[in-house]
Design goal:
Radius of gyration: 24 Å
Shape: globular
Distance between the termini: 88 Å
Helix content: 40-55%
Largest sheet: 6 strands, mixed
Strand order of the largest sheet: 7-6-8-5-9-11
CATH superfamily of the largest domain: Bacterial extracellular solute-binding protein, family 7
Number of helices: 13
Order of helices and strands: HEHEHEHEEHEHEHEHEEHHEHHH
CATH class of the largest domain: Alpha Beta
Number of domains: 2
Length: 354
């Protein structure tokens, strides 16, 4: 009996000595979702993030990437992340209007001059105010879009009167801006917009310049009105399931944070780059770019002031003071000025001003 017990003990020692190291090296497997097409440069940036995390963790964190809405649509992205369908994902706040009320202040017409500036400002805003509406996820970074401009299929828009009655794809705060300018906003998900334009379901769309190339809008759009001085954006986000984040080892968290900050800076520069590409392609294909006169821009800016007032009233009804909301807007304007100066100092070409 003693011999058998000794043998059993020896087997157990052997098993534990071989299994424990394997468990210690167990790969952490995660899923990342993005609704953008697989070859879109912003989709490739998410792929870079996944690959870079795996590389820097020596394969200990492996992120399977699902682009093109194959796992989650843009509208379902946030809920899909919080419920664990995906562990992290990329979308923007205008797809779920009302879910991120404080952050929606970033989408108001506040004069963003480029995507580079908007990305940096949106991240500064989050760091400064930490809106509790993001408490259920771990924020990796924000990537607000360049200023949104008006793309139309047939009718050129040179004045507010030209926009009257046109059906324009717009979501979030931009829908209110289109209403204020006299247009009729239509909420359509981006993956469905090209077909809606092609079939004439809508007359146009409000996006930056990059979709002219990366969503192939240049194939159907004939006119682009450079309404960028309004400076309205869509605030994109890249966030992670909070429970999954909490279970990561400290070193993995450190690496993912570092890679996320690098991705944020890459995204800031990428917006400007993609806007130039969209603009150049559009012009080569004979597209018409319309620059509004100073007097017309002044009219448009005046027309959208009620959108800002309506937002402030809404936030006061939710328990925020007017002074608090004014403080958010003042901070945004200050950071816009700061990052525009940085953009110029670094010699980063601006597709709207250069």
């Amino acid at each position: 009996m003693k011999k058998i017990s000794l043998l059993s003990f020896s087997v157990l020692v052997y098993l534990f000595s071989t299994i424990t190291p394997v468990n210690a090296q167990e790969v952490i497997k995660l899923k990342a979702a993005n609704y953008l097409p697989p070859m879109h440069k912003m989709s490739l940036l998410t792929q870079w993030f996944c690959d870079e995390v795996k590389k820097r963790t020596n394969g200990k964190v492996e992120i399977s990437y699902y682009p093109g809405g194959t796992l989650l649509s843009p509208v379902k992205m946030y809920v899909g992340i919080t419920t664990g369908i995906a562990d992290m994902g990329f979308s923007h706040t205008a797809y779920t209007r009302g879910r991120f009320p404080v952050t929606e202040v970033l989408d108001l017409p506040q004069g963003y001059p480029s995507g580079y500036v908007a990305v940096q400002v949106s991240n500064d805003f989050y760091k400064k105010f930490k809106p509790p509406e993001w408490d259920n996820v771990h924020v990796l970074y924000f990537a607000s879009s360049p200023p949104l401009v008006i793309h139309t299929i047939e009718k050129p828009v040179k004045t507010m009167e030209d926009l009257a009655g046109l059906k324009i794809r717009a979501t979030g705060q931009m829908a209110e801006v289109i209403k204020a300018l006299g247009g009729a906003p239509v909420p359509i998900q981006m993956p469905d917009t090209y077909d809606a334009l092609r079939r004439g379901v809508i007359d146009g769309v409000t996006v930056d310049l990059s979709p002219l190339k990366y969503w192939k809008f240049a194939e159907v759009i004939k006119h682009v009105t450079m309404s960028w001085p309004l400076g309205t954006t869509y605030c994109f986000y890249f966030v992670m399931n909070k429970r999954k984040w909490g279970k990561l080892p400290p070193e993995a968290k450190k690496i993912m944070t570092e890679v996320a900050m690098e991705a944020k800076d890459k995204q800031a520069a990428l917006w400007n780059e993609m806007d130039f590409e969209g603009k150049d392609l559009f012009l080569k294909q004979g597209g018409d770019i319309i620059n509004l006169s100073d007097s017309e821009i002044a009219r448009w800016k005046k027309a959208v002031q009620p959108v800002i007032a309506q937002y402030k009233e809404s936030m006061v009804s939710k328990g925020h003071s007017e002074a608090e909301v004014d403080g958010w807007m003042q901070f945004i304007k200050e950071r816009i000025g700061h990052w525009r100066a940085v953009e110029k100092e670094k010699g980063i070409p601006n597709p709207y001003l250069d």
